[in-house]
Amino acid sequence: MTFHYLESAADPRVADYTQLTDVHLRKLREPAEGMYIAESSRVLRRALAAGHRPRSFFLAEKWMPDLADIFEQYPDVPAYIGSAGLLEEITGFHLHRGAMAAMHRPAPVPLPELLAGARRVAVLEDIVDHTNVGAIFRSAAALDVDAVLVSPRCGDPLYRRSVRVSMGTVFQVAWARLDSWPQDLTLLKEQGFTVAAMELTDDALDLDELAAVNPERLALVLGTEGAGMSAETLAAVDLAVKIPMRAGVDSLNVAAASAVAFWELRPRA
């Protein structure tokens, strides 16, 4: 294994790691360049366990012993080592979770393959907060959701904040970005899915009412906070469903709501 010790923040070899706090820049760059950033040793290990390939490693010298086994597995992947101050100058924030890695973004899974055999699917409409995206993926991984679909304007599940909040579980759930929204919901209906919108409408079913029906295949659409779900999407779904609220609370954060819904709507035998 060859370790490269950095002396300048302008070193072109670590361009993958520059300006990591610039969300707009990174969400344009990373998909276009076929890469994403795995932040923290735990997330990095989960990415590798999922079969993702590293482009390079990036860490302070004190973290090297923690990843000795990884370096042995990937002797041809460069590892860039720098002082805490220099790494912060490059990335824009202080690294305190161990190593980072620039990873090759996996090839998209074709939608028919992703849906084959799936009984529960989450669909995210324009959820741009990467913290919420990551939290939803974590709940999906834990609560029997087979796949996640994201609308064209939804946040990137592989943006580093999404990955970090998901604790790397985003690598465990198959996902795909839809091309046409909300028209692509028709594809789910053609595959036999009941498509339900999580939205407070006048005719929305309570969550336990839909759970009692126990659809064989169910796609649950979750909308962005604030503006709520678009009228076009509500017109395209089969029904709306809501969590009954108590004590004058009108709604939950979308990530919290997703966990409640995934659990209640899990497939029963």
Describe this structure in a few short sentences.
This protein is α/β, with parallel strands linked by helices. Helix content is 32%, strand content 20%. Strand 6, helix 6 and strand 7 form a beta-alpha-beta unit.
Q: Would you kindly provide a written description of the structure presented here, covering whatever features stand out?
A:
Helices cover 32% and strands 20% of the residues. It is an alpha/beta fold. It has a seven-stranded parallel beta sheet. A five-stranded mixed beta sheet has the order 1-4-3-5-2. Helix 7 links the parallel strand 7 (147-150) and strand 8 (174-177). Helix 6 (130-142) packs parallel to helix 11 (254-264). It starts with a strand and ends in a 5-residue tail after the last helix. The model has no long low-confidence stretch (mean pLDDT 94).
